[in-house]
Amino acid sequence: MEPLNALVSVSNFMLIPAFAYGSQLALGALGITLIFSILRFAHFAHGDTMALGTAAVIGGTWFLQARGIGIDPLPTALLAVPFGILVLTGYLLVADRFVYRYYRKVKAKPMIFVMASLGVMFITNGITRLFMGVGETRFEDGERFLFTVRQFRDWSGLDEGMALRSAQAITIITALVVMVALFWFLNRTRAGKSMRAYSDNEDLALLSGINPERVVVITWVITAILLVLAGTLYGLDKGFRPFNYFQLLLPMFAAAILGGLGSPIGAIVGAYVVAFAEMGITFAWRRVVTYLAPEGMEPSSMMQLLPVDYKFAVTFAILVIVLLFRPTGIFKGKVL
Amino acid sequence: MPEPFLIGDAMTGGYGGADILHSCTIAVEKGEIAVIVGPNGAGKSTAMKAVFGMLKIREGQVRLNGEDITALTPQARVAKGMGFVPQTNNIFPSMTVEENLEMGAFIRTDEIRVTMEQIYDLFPILRDKRRQAAGELSGGQRQQVAVGRALMTKPSVLMLDEPTAGVSPIVMDELFDRIIEIARTGISILMVEQNARQALEIADKGYVLVQGANRYTDTGQALLADPDVRKSFLGG
Q1: Is A224 domain-assigned?
Q2: What pTM was computed for the model?
Q3: ipTM over 0.95
Q4: In B, residues 45-104, which contact A (CB 8 Å cutoff)?
Q5: Cross-strand bridge partners of residue A164
């Protein structure tokens, strides 16, 4: 029995990556939940707009790198994030002006909005691929590790090692800061409160003199910030490929629905549940169990419930179970 | 006769189809309480909405303090000093009581603290519950939040659409007392009520509508004493 080694092993291969992945999902799911509660539709273009924003950040990163501007040991991409936010805000506002605003004016049904966002998704997807191609782009630079497996092993004297990549650490810290800032904004500022009021009761918000178009613009700006951060952090962590970003749509929606659509805290909790479920079920537990099992009882199989390729099946199963048994989600959100 | 403070004068119109209001006139004097009563489907709420601009009128005028406001949107009328409490969905349920009041004062740029204190003095229970989500309160307390929210703009006219719908008789008396108190501060009150008898008791002016037209118009006391009104609308 070597519980310490088990803990280190499970942290290295499962807990830390899942925590980072969950943080990336949380930022995306927050955007979905905000758009759902304020613009009242499921934003299907979420994954692809995230890719577009990240592409802008990568462009900015290349521009900065070519001029030798960096913030070593931190990745240059962080310096390009404001540029990405600017580009994506512009893009989303243009999309809103030319696509969604019309449907708001004619008070279209939510499903029509969803279809419109599907159209935006395809166009955005095309634009991203036009600039970035379909292959993988790596744009992580600076110090790659906070500490490596070898350093950890030397320091702790354990058999198992643990590494903390800077992309993971940056992800977790940034996500926490952004979440706190978002909650502060929604609960403490006039603009944030007007957004919540609009989400609660549109007619009464109008009567109170809240300008809906202003609320809509603020929502898109916040969405752009969340998406660019989520996309950049995901890209630093795992590399940028447009198709992967499109695929993130499923876990992000699962997270938002699981937490309760319209509930920001729900989106965060849902994101971590989805991330840990995906990683936990596709993780090979053999090594960890070997450390924990009594002598002679070591497992002979990989102890992996599903191959890694099936991780989206886990998310899909969560989504189906939630929709069947508790469609309002953990925090009593709205039903899609 | 001098012009009333707020008057919907000979309003005719509806929601697009057939007219619901037929040359209907509703008015309220400064600091007085006017009550619109009548059978179901008489167009009571419609008349109120017409005064507030939530429904286009084909003919007639709405004048506030002598100014023609017929063409203004409801939001613009709020800025002119009209407060409106809808019958349902009249609060922000997930926001705290205090945030509800803050949102009521959204168009104000000056200090709102004093107004908020006045509302807490008027409805002391709201002070105790100010950090609680408004949606978690009882029906009567929610109505207080709704009225408080509308008062946050410091309106000169407060319009209430069935403020006592769905609350217990005790809470109803309590609400009516508060409404009298509000009127005493110089705010004109125009309200639609199902509980005709109790409402007419506190009314300076009563309007009995039938099929979108004025049937009887008099002081509250006179209407209560009128045998025709009693027989047809107050159940004897």
Answers
A1: yes
A2: 0.91
A3: no
A4: 74-75, 78-79, 84, 86, 89-95, 99, 102-104
A5: A147
